[in-house]
Structure formats: C-alpha cells, structure tokens
Design a protein that fits this description.
InterPro entries: aa-tRNA-synth_II/BPL/LPL (IPR045864), Biotin_CoA_COase_ligase (IPR004408), BPL_C (IPR003142), BPL_LPL_catalytic (IPR004143). Keywords: Biotin, Ligase. 21% of the residues lie in helices and 28% in strands. It is globular and about 55 Å long. By secondary structure, the chain is of the alpha+beta class. The protein folds into two domains: 211 residues, BirA Bifunctional Protein, domain 2; 45 residues, SH3 type barrels (Roll).
Length: 304
C-alpha cells in the first residue's frame, strides 16, 4: 500500500484527521500556524539527486510507526536503499526496549530511512545507530544552532536551563537479510505543557535559533548521507571513517559514573571510559575491571 502524501493538498484533510471538539469537523492541517506541514514535493526537490543516497521522500499525515511501515514495505518487495518515510504524527511510535514515544502532530521530526550497506560486514552494522546519532547531532547543530550531546547508545540530549534533557531517540531494525531501517524521533517545537514526562526536552525549549522542520530535516538527512558515505567507503571501519572519534567527542556518557541495566535483571556500575571498536560502552568498575556493554539501558549518575 502506497503511503498517502499529506503535504501537497493543504485543503484536503484525510479521513482520520483530528476532530475539532466544538463541531466534530476535521481540523485543517494549517490550524497551528507555528507548526506548518511538511511538503514531500519540496523535500524531494531538495534531497533527491542523481548519484545521491536519497531516492524517495514520502510524507504521511498519520501512521502507527514509520519504522514498522518501512520494514513491512521492504519485506513486500525490492525496495531500494535511500527511501525516507516521514510522518506528521505517529500513534504507535516505539523507542528502545519497546518504550512508547508520544508527541503532538507536527511538533517534531518523526522519520525512518532504509539503508542497505552491502559493502560493510554485518558485524559492523551495530555502528549504524551511533552513526545516525552523530549525523543528527551534526545536522541540528548546523541548522538549529543548538548544542546537542549523545547519550550512549542512541539518545539525543539538549540543555534546558541547567538541566540535561532527552529531545530525541534512534531505533534500528533489520529489514530482511540485507537491510536496516533507522528510525529517528526529535522533539522540535514541543512546549513545556506538552512534555510527556518532566525530564523530556525539545529544540525550542533549548533555545534553538531555528525550529522550521523543513530545513532541519534536510540538514539531518544531508548529514546522514555524508556520514553514511564515509563509513561505507571505509568498509564500516569506525576508526578509519572518523566515526569512533567523533562519536566519543560528542558523547555525554563518557567520563560519567553510570549504571548499566542489563538483560536478565542484572546491573553494572562504573565509569564510562570509552566506546570500543564494536560500538560498545566500556565501563571501569570499582573492582578494577573494564567491562564492555553492548546492550542495556544506561543511567547517568554523576560526573566522574
């Protein structure tokens, strides 16, 4: 099923458009002038080019999860690398560990991309979420003018007041034998009274100079194309591509005491001292042992 393009007919509200409580009529997608809709036509014009990574950009008004949709589309047929699916609103978005991600319509960037890194050994595909984090942070810094940091392995942090808050997340899922779908969610214009939890943040709350989602999305996707190209040309080698060094430089987890909540209800406390060649977080424990963590939830405790 082809996703409906929600962006090019502003007067044509889809059947499942949000209803106005007063008259039960579909609200115009332009009802919140601070959050104009994205245009897939404009995005394609700016991003799709001969020889480039991005082949197609689709914008849909509402879906359950862009990741789930793109994984399903990839399974149905020979979907080319470089397809981008963007949703103005998601009803069943997921983060790591199946956590729910909720946000008002058009308050952020919610998109997924399909990658097929055939030149890279599968053993190095674990770097893709970290690579995406670097690309997102780089793109947002350039376009939004806001400082961002990365929490291992896949959270985007901003500073609101003097507090470090999560403003985005990344989720990677396999798509068949040779594909990976990377999903990204970024809170852009979310206001304080809209925060799903008190510790959440957004680019607007962090004082971003630009919260226009069109140039933000273009900047992030161009940055992702650049970093993915470097990594792929290096055969996925994180050191040769510069990815490992750049990720470490922007990782707010390094140098902190953290608690790693591991599978099997285990936990490990130590200082995060490095990200190794496999993308794992290395903890120096009180026992004097350095232990790599490849999966788990990381809780920042304090600076070491």
């Amino acid at each position: 099923m082809t996703p409906r393009d929600s962006s090019d007919s502003p007067n044509d509200a889809p059947k499942d458009a949000p209803k106005d409580a007063a008259n039960d009529a579909p609200r115009s997608r332009w009802s919140d002038l601070d959050r104009p809709p994205l245009s897939s036509t404009a995005l394609r014009r700016g991003l799709v080019r001969e020889g480039g990574l991005w082949r197609r950009v689709d914008v849909v008004q509402r879906t359950g999860s862009t990741n789930s949709d793109l994984v399903a589309r990839a399974a149905e047929g020979d979907l080319a690398e470089g397809v981008v699916l963007v949703a103005e609103e998601q009803s069943a978005a997921r983060g790591r560990l199946d956590r729910q991600w909720t946000a008002p319509a058009r308050s952020g960037l919610f998109f997924s991309v399909l990658l097929r890194p055939a030149e890279v050994p599968v053993t190095r595909w674990g770097w893709l979420p970290l690579l995406t984090g670097v690309a997102v942070a780089t793109g947002l810094s350039r376009v939004a003018g806001v400082d961002t940091a990365l929490k291992w392995p896949n959270d985007l942090l901003v500073t609101v007041g003097d507090e470090e808050r999560k403003a985005g997340g990344i989720l990677a899922e396999r798509a068949g034998n040779d594909g990976v779908v990377i999903g990204v969610g970024i809170n852009v214009s979310l206001r304080a009274d809209e925060l799903p939890v008190p510790r959440a943040g957004s680019l607007a709350l962090a004082g971003a100079a630009n919260t226009d989602r069109d140039p933000l999305l273009r900047g992030v996707l161009r940055s992702l194309e650049d970093w993915y190209g470097r990594w792929r040309e290096a055969g996925g080698d994180p050191a040769a591509s510069g990815l490992q060094e750049t990720y470490a430089a922007g990782c707010a987890t390094l140098g902190r005491m953290v608690r790693a909540e591991l599978p099997g209800d285990r936990s490990l406390v130590g200082e995060a001292v490095a990200v190794d060649g496999d993308g794992r977080l290395v903890l120096a424990t009180e026992a004097g042992v350095q232990e790599p963590v490849g999966a788990g939830d990381i809780v920042h405790l304090r600076l070491a």
